[in-house]
């Protein structure tokens, strides 16, 4: 079955151009001109990815993304005219998987969609269940679910991919470039500090004390490693 992409933008011309390129790639497309309408569509339809403009007439794209993240790990590609680093970091911190700056090439948007969907496919997994810290942290890979002290943890697709990449190789140090390739793809053109932001978000969700991480440990001057078996 073809993947379904929801395009959310209040400009009909942008929706038309983006959906045209996506349909040429074989995707089924849905459209929405506002945030409330987009959330309604997501209640009714099975969607595989959302392309989300940040400047919507009824609510901000950031708020739409937050509401999506409260109930789903659905991939989100943001379209934004906001060019500052802080704006981009904010978008990633609330759960966006990638962003494209306006004005943009529709070919670039289509390429980013392909890359995100390629990254969020199920990987060849080493185990159906991985447990760390005496069961304090559990990853159920066959369900793509993570539990902390028995409670489900809501992760974005990139956060899950990052956790899985680290946890599958305990004690191995990964450089930021290696993690970018594994999580964001070799064609990612953003700042390597994007990985730092994802690590920060992930620590907030899985660590008992985020400022004193037990699992995702910084290797200064090198990168990060997963210390799942290094503490009692």
UniProtKB/TrEMBL annotation:
The modification 4-aspartylphosphate is found at residue 53. Residues 127-228 bind DNA. The lineage of its organism: Bacteria, Bacillati, Bacillota, Bacilli, Bacillales. Pfam families: Response_reg (PF00072), Trans_reg_C (PF00486). It comes from the Bacteria. This is Response regulator transcription factor. Residues 127-228 form the OmpR/PhoB-type domain. The keyword Transcription applies. Residues 4-117 form the Response regulatory domain. CDD domains: trans_reg_C (cd00383). InterPro entries: CheY-like_superfamily, OmpR/PhoB-type_DNA-bd, Sig_transdc_resp-reg_C-effctor, Sig_transdc_resp-reg_receiver, WalR-like, WH-like_DNA-bd_sf. Keywords: DNA-binding, Phosphoprotein, Transcription, Transcription regulation, Two-component regulatory system.
């Amino acid at each position: 079955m073809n993947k379904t992409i929801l395009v959310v933008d209040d400009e009909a011309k942008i929706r038309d151009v983006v959906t045209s390129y996506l349909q040429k790639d074989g995707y089924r497309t849905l459209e929405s001109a506002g945030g409330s309408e987009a959330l309604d569509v997501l209640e009714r339809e099975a969607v595989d990815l959302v392309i989300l403009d940040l400047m919507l007439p009824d609510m901000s794209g950031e708020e739409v993304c937050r509401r999506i993240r409260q109930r789903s790990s659905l991939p989100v590609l943001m379209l934004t005219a906001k060019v500052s680093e802080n704006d981009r970091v904010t978008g990633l911190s609330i759960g966006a998987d990638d962003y494209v700056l306006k004005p943009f090439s529709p070919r670039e948007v289509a390429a980013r969609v392909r890359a995100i969907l390629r990254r969020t496919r199920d990987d060849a997994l080493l185990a159906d269940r991985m447990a760390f810290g005496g069961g304090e942290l559990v990853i159920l890979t066959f369900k793509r679910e993570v539990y902390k002290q028995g409670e489900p943890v809501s992760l974005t697709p990139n956060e899950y991919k990052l956790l899985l990449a680290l946890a599958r190789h305990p004690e191995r140090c990964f450089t930021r470039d290696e993690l970018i390739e594994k999580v964001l793809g070799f064609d990612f053109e953003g700042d390597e500090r994007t990985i730092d932001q994802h690590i920060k978000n992930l620590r907030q969700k899985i660590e008992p004390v985020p400022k004193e991480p037990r699992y995702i440990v910084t290797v200064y001057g090198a990168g990060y490693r997963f210390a799942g078996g290094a503490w009692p």
